[in-house]
Amino acid sequence: MQRESQDEQEAVQKRTFTKWINSHLAKHKPPLEVNDLFEDIKDGVKLLALLEVLSGQRLPCEQGRQLKRIHWVSNIGTALKFLEGRKSVYRGSPIKLVNIHATDIADGRPSIVLGLIWTVILYFQIEELTSNLPALQALSNSNSSVESIASSETGSPPMKRKVVNKFQGNAKKALLRWVQCTAAKHHGIEVKDFGPSWRDGVAFQSVVHAIRPDLVDMEAVRRRSNRENLEEAFSLAENELGIPRLLDPEDVDVDKPDEKSIMTYVAQFLKHYPNPHHSETDGHCMCFCHPHFPLKSASVSSFTENNQIELKVFLDQLERDVLRAQGAEGNLTDKYQAFKSFRVQYEMKKKQTDPLLQPVHRDGKLSVDQALVKQAWDRVSARLLDWHIHLDKSLPGPLGVIGAWLHRAEMALREDIPIQHAHDETANVLHRKLEQHKVT
């Protein structure tokens, strides 16, 4: 009986992961498609194509109709080496693949293939989409990493050698809290996991409703059967929201729905979630916002001790991550990409919290809590500026000189120039600064 359950979960994962892969390979030039995951991954060609689409980088690949096993192993080795060389954009920690070998993938070993694809999904989708949630920042510690550890455990089918991810726990909690606090709690739905809680389809419907309330009648949902709710939720998500249909009703309407498959599917909704909501986490509210949509409003009076703690946790972690990423090895392109990701994260959070830093006293002074947070923002800003200057100076040849010159120009433009009563004195100051910059 247990073996049948493992086989069923393996089959569901295989279908879900195949659909997820194909949703990305459709963007490849030329488009590619996986039909049988365990067979089509053996030569490593489509695996490398998937990583190219996800990373935006070109990877060396042995191709041709007469590829031999030695070429297969070479391609898969390239993919594994690429993954192990990647660092989390937000934590700077590398992916570590243990007991996932190129020969296992070339043999098409189901448990190892599924473990590898799950690691790719965790890193490129679930981490990427949950890393902007404050809940994840609070849950993470400075040593978090995506670390795949193959062991002899058999408690989590269908993996014969279980793939455990240190990072997965934090990402899973962040994703689950997002569901609980942006969709489920508004309809009195209890979502405790990524398994049985989703069987009746109501949780999926509530997530669709959170994005497009006009699409779902939650009262009607409660009267429908499991299969009807699941079918409608998956169809609405695909047709109205453009979310690839990775699951079918029969995959979920079972005693033990597969957790990894449901997490893979649900994480896609984060890209489409437009409105800020609040969640209760550890006794206080945390704001869950889609990374591309800033807070619409925030009152100064809401700047409580809890807000300050959340921001301090976020900023302290961000500063550590910036320092670690700045000192990490890698080519200049990767470093610029990492810098850009941190900069975007910084700007989004800054825009969300700026209203909270408006003076609360009549004399225009900040409160103690506000002043502490402002100092933390200034530290992170200075770190990012130093990193940017260092990267621009590292450009080859004359580009590095030009980068340094542009930064000096930006610094000059940021300087405060006191306006004199005699306008000609102010003009003279500006003229001297301009001439000084021309000389440098």
How is this structure best described in words?
InterPro entries: Actinin_actin-bd_CS (IPR001589), CH_dom (IPR001715), CH_dom_sf (IPR036872), CH_SYNE1_rpt1 (IPR047290), CH_SYNE1_rpt2 (IPR047291), LINC-complex_assoc (IPR052403). The chain is mainly alpha-helical and 440 residues long. It has 3 domains: 1-132, Orthogonal Bundle (Actin-binding Protein, T-fimbrin, domain 1); 168-272, Calponin-like domain (Actin-binding Protein, T-fimbrin, domain 1, Orthogonal Bundle); 306-394, no CATH class. Helices cover 57% and strands 5% of the residues. It has 18 helices and 5 strands. The chain has helices at residues 2-25, 37-40, 45-55, 69-85, 102-106, 110-130, 134-139, 166-182, 202-211, 218-221, 226-241, 249-252, 259-267, 305-326, 332-353, 368-393, 398-414, 423-439; strands spanning 96-98, 147-150, 163-165, 277-281, 284-288. It has a 3-stranded mixed β-sheet with strand order 1-2-3. It has a two-stranded antiparallel ribbon with strand order 4-5. A hairpin with a 2-residue loop joins strand 4 and strand 5 (284-288). The longest helix has 26 residues, at 368-393. The chain is globular, with a radius of gyration of 25 Å. The termini are far apart.
